[in-house]
Design a protein that fits this description.
The protein contains nine helices and no strands. It is mainly alpha-helical. The chain has two domains: 29-111, no CATH class; 140-262, Four Helix Bundle (Hemerythrin (Met), subunit A), CATH 1.20.120. Helix 3 packs antiparallel against helix 4 (111-139) and helix 6 (176-195) packs antiparallel against helix 8 (207-221). The longest helix is centred in the N-terminal third of the chain and has 57 residues, at 2-58. The termini are far apart. The model has no long low-confidence stretch (mean pLDDT 87). Keywords: Membrane, Transmembrane, Transmembrane helix. This is Nitrate and nitrite sensing. The chain crosses the membrane at residues 6-21.
Length: 268
């Protein structure tokens, strides 16, 4: 009788441990899927911003591409809501509403307004990723990784903020006041981007980023530096891509340490 009771207790303990392991795996899988989808939404937002900017600035015809991106954004945010924990779904619904507004009336905006709206959506997406990542690190008791992640995260956000401020100045770059602001913002942006070398040296030392930083340096030092708004926007697009690569590198290394490597981004 004692043997039977002992066996039943052992089986019960094993069953409970198996249940906890399954629950843990399910939680990790959900966090991983949330980050994968949010990362894809972030990438699609950047593509949508680039495409709509080119239409607004240069009159390019990208209707098919923009419509396709809008469909993918709707699809991804719907999936995010379906896999998020019930208590967190309102945050993802807010993201979905922001993206719907972003998609619907972009053609009626000024370039700076379009930049601002996209920037807010991208930041909302990044803050959701930050919440998932911090909760994950706390859950696995990795304070060492949490401190490093927080420091790197803040540097990326600072660089993005500096880029947004610089881009807003481009519309008024041909006025004396606008030129002064542009030079000031160029100096700040160059410093913030160079600081990201500590996070991902390869991203910042790439030929594209190096060339963009050289242009930024010239803009900040010479008020009569001759560059068109089109070339200026392309330079900021290269810097934006470099910052995105830094963040993606940082995120990829961390998630691979905790769980699995991130999949490749799906090109729209």
């Amino acid at each position: 009788m004692f043997v039977i009771i002992s066996m039943l207790i052992s089986v019960s303990i094993l069953g409970f441990m198996f249940y906890l392991a399954k629950q843990r795996e399910s939680t990790l899988q959900r966090k991983y899927e949330l980050l994968v989808d949010l990362r894809q939404v972030l990438y699609l937002c950047r593509q949508h911003r680039s495409a709509t900017h080119h239409v607004l600035m240069f009159g390019e015809h990208r209707d098919v591409e923009i419509e396709h991106l809008a469909g993918l954004l709707n699809e991804k945010t719907t999936h995010l809501i379906s896999i998020a924990h019930f208590d967190n779904r309102p945050m993802y619904r807010v993201l979905q509403l922001k993206l719907k507004a972003l998609i619907q009336d972009w053609s009626e905006r000024t370039i700076s307004r379009n930049q601002m709206i996209h920037g807010k959506a991208i930041r909302h997406c990044m803050f959701l990723m930050d919440e998932v990542m911090l909760a994950w690190l706390i859950e696995v008791n990795r304070e060492d990784l949490s401190d490093e992640y927080h420091m790197n995260w803040q540097q990326v956000i600072d660089a993005m903020d500096a880029l947004t401020q610089f881009r807003i100045c481009i519309e008024d770059m041909n006025t004396p006041e606008g030129q002064t602001r542009l030079q000031h913002c160029a100096d700040i942006l160059a410093r913030k981007v160079n600081q990201l070398t500590m996070v991902s040296p390869l991203s910042i030392s790439s030929p594209i980023c190096t060339k963009a930083l050289a242009i930024l340096s010239d803009v900040s030092k010479h008020s009569d530096y001759n560059i068109s708004p089109e070339a200026m926007y392309q330079m900021t697009a290269d810097i934006s891509l470099s910052i995105a690569h830094v963040y993606d590198h940082m995120l990829g290394e961390l998630i691979e340490t905790l769980y699995l490597p991130l999949p490749k981004l799906l090109t729209a």
